[in-house]
Write a sequence for this structure.
């Protein structure tokens, strides 16, 4: 691999990892090539250069990984471990991730394009904290005992109680926008619950999961508890989703693929949770300080280059300050400099791939064609790398494609509104319902609006804030179920009712 353009920026650990050149699958505790020897390339989106070759798993490899996970779940040392032993292993993994945070942040930056500093401050911080949060749940899984009233045996004696049991083998299919963090959103509760896992990272960003695989081995998880299979959606994701040996699928990605996974899961009665797309509204009420609202709205859309499922991509501003707020956001966008994740002066990096670049540019063209005013950006940045200028499209109509469809890039649409009723209706006029933010200090208006918004998370005077203990997921086409918090743990547990006649 040619690392000449990044070797001055990266730590020894990162260099050592990338020098492997070709990376393998983690199955049953061993690094192995794909059965048919296939590999694929992963690129640095800032330079478009190939940075690594990675094994391309196919159906045969998925089957081996699921069998290894099954064996570890039913027979291995993992199956006999006490909750406190699982807790200690997860905590050890959190310590190792923390110790290797710089290397992991660098790898995330090289593979995904995000800034190293952001990867450390957000992705790695959340990964470590969430592992620790979930580790604690391992020892707090509780059933209940109850008084019995069996209607046709009121005179008989029973002992009745419920047990929470690990659901079994989990297939985790994750996207490329927060590759390590979202992988751990699945791994954390699965391991706390006592499940075993087959993890499939996105083909655009396989590297941080593979680095994590090494740390999972070092932490001392028994073989087969976590298996990592790299490959694309059709070759590796689909065989995992339809494998009858999988008990639960946890997916984050597009609504389109989420539906395919849901259908495949129902065929086997595999449990599933889906965290899907979004088109989250940012609602600026008339009492706001326009500059503060503009800064918040800009961050809501441009963070992670707009590649955030809950990105604030639809801006609604009260008409009395619309021009002012939109103008301010335009100025912020114009001032932003674009560069690689190693360029500390850059405020935004490249999109993840040529495919996403083409997709985002085609939406900008659709916006232009539908008569939107381009307040800022509106084009890609010339030269190498998948860079798109932060873009603000004003005076779009509520039913335009750019307002209705998820773009997943640094593209904001802006509309003025008249009344609270109107903006609540527009906010909900979307197939999605992942998040929404309200910007106001008028408590009464804010509290009246919150229950009206059909979204899994409502932020007030902030956007995209996440906490390990706060459930995250969508209404409507944004998904089924919740990641994070106690709700996440529940999705990896079955409930067994026990009646003992005594
Ligand atoms: P995708 O949904 O195709 O990919 C997400 C994951 O699913 C990847 O690991 C992929 O390999 C896997 N996958 C793809 N097809 C599959 C199949 N048939 N069966 C099983 N697994 C499959 O998303 P993609 O194509 O990378 O991005 C397209 C759009 O999806 C984005 O522009 C964005 O709108 C949305 N998206 C939303 C995300 C979110 O966080 N909610 C994350 C990534 C993409
Ligand atoms: Mg896809």
């Amino acid at each position: 691999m040619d690392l000449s353009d990044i070797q001055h920026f990266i730590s020894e650990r990162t260099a050592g990892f990338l020098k492997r050149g070709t990376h393998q699958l983690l199955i049953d505790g061993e690094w192995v090539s794909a059965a048919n020897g296939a590999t694929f390339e992963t690129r640095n989106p800032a330079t478009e250069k190939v940075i690594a070759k990675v094994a391309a798993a196919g159906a045969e490899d998925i089957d081996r990984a699921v069998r290894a996970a099954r064996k570890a779940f039913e027979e291995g040392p993992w199956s006999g471990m006490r909750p406190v032993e699982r807790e200690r292993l997860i905590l050890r993994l959190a310590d190792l991730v923390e110790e290797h945070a710089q290397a992991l942040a660098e790898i995330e930056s090289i593979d995904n394009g995000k800034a190293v500093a952001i990867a450390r401050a957000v992705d790695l911080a959340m990964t470590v904290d969430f592992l620790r949060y979930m580790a604690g749940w391992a020892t707090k899984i509780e059933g209940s005992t109850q008084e019995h009233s069996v209607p046709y045996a009121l005179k008989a004696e029973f002992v009745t109680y419920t047990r929470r049991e690990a659901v079994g083998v989990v297939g985790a299919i994750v996207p490329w926008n927060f590759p390590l963090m979202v992988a751990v959103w699945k791994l954390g509760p699965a391991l706390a619950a006592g499940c075993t896992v087959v993890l499939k990272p996105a083909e655009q960003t396989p590297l941080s999961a593979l680095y994590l695989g090494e740390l999972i081995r070092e932490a001392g998880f028994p073989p087969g508890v976590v298996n990592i299979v790299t490959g694309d959606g059709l070759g590796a994701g689909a065989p995992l989703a339809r494998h009858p040996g999988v008990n639960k699928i946890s997916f984050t990605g597009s609504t389109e693929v989420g539906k395919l996974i849901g259908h495949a899961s129902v065929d086997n009665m595999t449990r599933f949770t889906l965290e899907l797309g979004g088109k989250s509204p940012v609602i600026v009420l008339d009492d706001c300080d326009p500059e503060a609202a503009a800064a918040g709205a800009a961050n809501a859309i441009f963070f992670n280059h707009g590649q955030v499922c809950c990105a604030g991509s639809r801006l609604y501003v009260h008409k009395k300050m619309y021009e002012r707020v939109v103008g301010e956001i335009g100025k912020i966008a114009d001032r932003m400099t674009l560069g690689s994740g190693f360029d500390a002066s850059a405020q935004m990096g490249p999109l993840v791939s040529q495919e996403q670049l083409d997709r985002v540019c085609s939406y900008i063209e659709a916006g232009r064609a539908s008569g939107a005013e381009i307040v800022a950006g509106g084009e890609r940045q010339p030269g190498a790398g998948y860079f798109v200028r932060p873009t603000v499209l004003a005076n779009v109509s509520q039913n335009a494609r750019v307002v209705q469809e998820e773009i997943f890039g640094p593209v904001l649409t802006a509309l003025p509104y008249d009344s609270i009723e109107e903006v609540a209706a527009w906010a909900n006029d979307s197939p999605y319902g992942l998040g929404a933010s309200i910007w106001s200090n008028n408590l009464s208006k804010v509290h009246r609006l919150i229950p009206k918004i059909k979204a899994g998370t409502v932020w007030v005077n902030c956007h995209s804030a996440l906490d390990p203990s706060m459930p995250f997921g969508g209404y409507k086409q944004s998904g089924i179920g919740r990641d994070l918090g106690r709700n996440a743990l529940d999705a990896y547990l079955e409930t067994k009712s026990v009646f003992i006649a005594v």
Summary: The mean pLDDT is 97. The first strand starts at residue 22 and ends at 23.
